[in-house]
Write a structure and sequence with these properties.
Elements (H helix, E strand, L loop, with lengths): L2 E6 L9 H9 L1 E8 L1 H4 L6 H20 L5 E4 L2 H9 L6 E5 L4 H16 L3 E5 L21 H10 L49 H15 L3 H4 L12 H5 L5 H14 L4 H23 L21 H9 L5 H13 L4 H14 L4 H11 L5 H12 L14 H8 L4 H6 L8 H4 L7 H6 L15 H15 L3
Parallel strand pairs: 1-2, 1-4, 2-3, 4-5
Helix pairs in contact: 4-5, 6-11, 10-11, 11-16, 13-14, 15-16
The chain binds a DNA duplex through helix 14 and helix 21.
Length: 478
DNA sequence: TGAAATGTTGGGGCG
DNA sequence: ACGCCCCAACATTTC
């Protein structure tokens, strides 16, 4: 009987995996996941992502066990691990889904070579995208650099492949004798276990992902277009970590959303808005694949010379949610406590770091990489560059969010700020987003002493804004 | 997927 | 009745 290794990567699910389905048709499947911090290098998963990965692997292992198999875990250089396995001689093929970040692309090529050398078939299948990046190009055959035409092109292109159902009757190969346990991978935080309460917030795994999608399309999508901007409202899908680890494929999301639209045509605006977010994810991967430098280097070259300030104390205040700007602090604390931050608040906090604090977007990117459960190599880098103004189709540099105005607009009732910055909870709405302007008596009544119970703003908005614009003038000619 | 500065308009109070 | 001023509301442009 032929045995195929199915190498799981960013696709921790069993449905809609063409490579798994093909392996299934060929014979026995040896399901394998390798935690590869060696090849990932400085793109090794961050702490919050590791928490997610642990539970996602647990869920996948359970699902495989339900049909009589065992998910094999290994740790180390994927190529070396695979070489070891193939040298035992009873593996016929290796299948996997594509992955599109630079180190994963490089690794894929090495795996192909290794397999060829050892006389084993290596097959890779479409990964977690709607369209293969090579298939999307503008009229001159170049990659897109602007979102709108990119997404228009995607929407008009051939519809993404119809998702495959769960394979029926899988025959799993006997487990490896030498393999790691989930505990060996040491993915969970210990002392302190800052994620102890996270299982109440999230359900990693294919089933949790499917439920989250169904729940969103059933309950939330009808108010999406407006609600998505209000962080206290539960209006977004929160699918990002599920997509990040491939517990759900974007193809499944796309087709589920289209089916929903078919049933309820009045939802067209809402669903198109939602799908456009999937579009931004797709666009980020398109950029990362065609311009792999975008992880590190500004897409717009003139930003190489940007005079970043690099003040460590300010960075620390931002990370800890102690900037003195309530909306910013609320966001940074939400992130720290839940591994997640509402999208609008991501824009506000990122704008604050890069523009008000003149701190390099890479410092923010690293922080998000470590603390977000949905930290995604493409979305994270591209979105930070977008906010900073150095990215493809980026927000113009002079688009500087006013943290007070943003708070008043999108958290008018103050529920978001009060939840995450409880020391301000008793301030009336009128001053909640600018406590430094509250009269003495109001502060006293709310039990607030600026500079003691809540920080003085670390920078003055007006001055910071002007300093940012002045810094931009220095690089503008390019 | 902004914000601030600047310009324009129109209603209402008032001499 | 009329012009004048003030200012809010909205529109445009500038960063």
């Amino acid at each position: 009987m032929a045995t195929t290794i199915y190498l799981f990567r960013n696709d921790l699910r069993l449905s809609d995996l063409p490579g798994l389905a093909a392996a299934n048709r060929a014979g026995d499947i040896l399901p394998l996941y390798i935690l590869d911090d060696v090849n990932a290098g400085d793109r090794a998963l961050g702490a919050a992502s590791r928490w997610w990965l642990h539970h996602s692997l647990q869920s996948l292992a359970d699902a495989i066990a339900d049909s009589g198999g065992t998910l094999n875990l290994l740790q180390g250089d994927t190529n070396a691990c695979l070489q070891d396995l193939l040298s035992t001689g009873n593996i016929n093929a290796v299948h996997c889904s594509r992955a599109y970040s630079p180190w994963e692309v490089v690794l894929e090529a090495r795996l192909r070579d290794t397999c060829e050398t050892m006389g084993v078939t290596f097959k890779r299948y479409p990964g977690p995208l709607l369209h293969e990046p090579e298939h999307i190009a503008n009229q001159s055959g170049e990659p897109f650099k602007v979102f709108t035409p990119f997404w228009r092109h995607c929407c008009r292109a051939q519809s993404p492949a119809q998702p495959l159902p769960l394979p029926s009757r899988t025959t799993w190969a006997d487990p490896l004798t030498q393999r790691a346990s989930l505990r060996d991978l040491a993915l969970l935080p210990t002392k302190p276990d800052w994620a102890a309460h996270w299982p109440e917030l999230w359900t990693p795994g294919e089933e949790g992902a499917r439920d989250a999608l169904a729940h969103f399309l059933r309950e939330r999508v009808s108010g999406y277009a407006k609600g998505r901007d209000h962080p206290a409202e539960n209006a977004t899908s929160r699918l990002s970590p599920h997509l990040r680890f491939g517990e759900l494929s974007p193809r499944q999301v796309w087709h589920a959303a289209r089916a929903c639209l078919q049933q309820e045509p009045v939802l067209e605006e809402q669903i198109n808005k939602f799908l456009a977010e999937l579009g931004w994810r797709e666009f980020s991967y398109h950029l990362l694949f065609h311009f792999p430098d975008i992880e590190q280097a500004p897409f717009k070259a003139q930003f190489e010379d940007f005079p970043w300030l690099g003040d460590e104390a300010l960075l620390k205040a931002w990370q800890r949610g102690q900037t003195g700007y309530p909306v910013v602090d609320a966001g940074m604390r939400e992130l720290w406590h839940t591994g997640y931050m509402h999208n609008r608040i991501r824009m506000v906090t990122a704008s604050f770091l890069t523009k008000h604090l003149l701190t390099h977007w890479r410092a923010g990117e690293r922080w998000f990489w470590d603390t977000l459960v949905d930290a995604d190599p493409a979305s994270n880098a591209c979105s930070w560059q977008w906010v900073a103004g150095s990215g493809a189709d980026a927000a113009p540099y002079f688009r500087i969010f006013n943290p007070v105005t943003q708070g008043e607009k999108f958290d008018a009732g103050g529920r978001y700020v009060r939840r995450w910055v409880p020391e301000l909870a008793d301030l009336p709405d009128r001053y909640l987003h600018k406590p430094w302007e509250a009269p003495e008596a109001t502060l006293r009544e709310a039990g607030i002493i600026i500079g003691e119970t809540y920080p003085q703003p670390v920078v003055d908005h007006r001055e910071a804004r002007e300093a940012a614009l002045a810094a931009y003038q220095q690089i503008r000619k390019g």
